[in-house]
């Protein structure tokens, strides 16, 4: 790619200069009666970004100083992408629809309505810090009706409104939803998109995060992101802490009803109540009490583990607690079942299925960021967490 070292403005090629200068194309040489393209007044096309270290984050603006109208402007980056843009009503100015990204070289090609052309180039400065993100759920997955879109950022997002404007969610059936900002359990900035009500089965959801060239205030984004998922079966789990029962409902009908024992009430071993979402099916895992602040009370390999919160609440097999299934809450915070019942539930549930936990034998309602706690907010309260409200 050729570059103009530090152009304050772009000089058009001889063909464009001759056209825009309005001079007749006489055959005479220098000093001849007709003049020549080289002698014609040179019309200039200016670009707002110039040199090798131009500041990123602003749209590219190409301006025709005089002559005819702009017909086509192409701005191509060094990765082969194009910056789309549009010509203004006066025909003299072209503005890109997206900003120039940091650490990128651009080639500019201009054509006017008289057939003249011009070329130039510039490059933007490298970013001091790059911000990246982690998306959930995974791309092309099938999830339950309670699954939100969730984005966790590597670095702080101070310009939340600017970032949120670039996050576009498309649902196949026009589902209404809203973004909401929070601090993730990890301490990082996070934004989730939650529908107003649970998803309808079969909905196809796409996220286009057009972030390349956006300054988060804690680092630059240097790429776009795209993900998508499909909503699966219409099912949810209801856990009654007082009745000591877990029920799986599919299409509104109870398809499983099993006895269980939840967290011991009256202290830190109590379970959380509220609406949560199945985060992951983790199978057989090692559970140690010190990881959740309960000293050395237990260290067990636990089967059919279904994660419900970051703080360590699961539904899982707990055969050691069999004496209490259906009669008392005596676990260290999790929802325990027999091996057979835990396996049956584990095989039936989907990541993203809501777990609605009710009853007074709890230590409170699950926090917003402790897994996916957004369903515990009213729709109005959730919408208020958008940076664009």
Commentary on this structure:
The chain has 3 domains: 10-123, Sandwich (Immunoglobulin-like); 133-232, Immunoglobulin-like, CATH 2.60.40; 235-376, Beta Barrel (L,D-transpeptidase catalytic domain-like). β19 and β20 (253-259) form a beta hairpin. It has 389 residues and is mainly beta. The strands form 6 sheets. The protein has a 6-stranded mixed beta sheet, with no helix packed on it. Strands 1-2-3-7-6 form a 5-stranded antiparallel beta sheet, with no helix packed on it. 7% of the residues lie in helices and 39% in strands. The chain contains 4 helices and 27 strands.
CATH hierarchy: architecture of the largest domain:
Beta Barrel
Widest sheet: strand ordering: 20-19-18-26-21-27
**Using only CA atoms, what is the Rg?**
30 Å
Count of discrete structural domains: 3
* CATH class descriptor name of the largest domain: Mainly Beta
Fourth-level CATH superfamily of the largest domain? L,D-transpeptidase catalytic domain-like
- What fraction of residues sit in β-strands? 35-45%
Note the overall shape: elongated
Q: Distance N terminus to C terminus? A: 44 Å
Q: Average the pLDDT over all residues and give the rounded result.
A: 88
Structural class: mainly beta
Number of helices: 4
Low-confidence runs (pLDDT<50, min 5 residues)?
1-42
The major beta sheet can be summarized as: 6 strands, mixed
Count of individual beta strands: 27
User: Which topology of the largest domain does CATH recognise?
Assistant: L,D-transpeptidase catalytic domain-like
How much helix is in the residues? under 10%
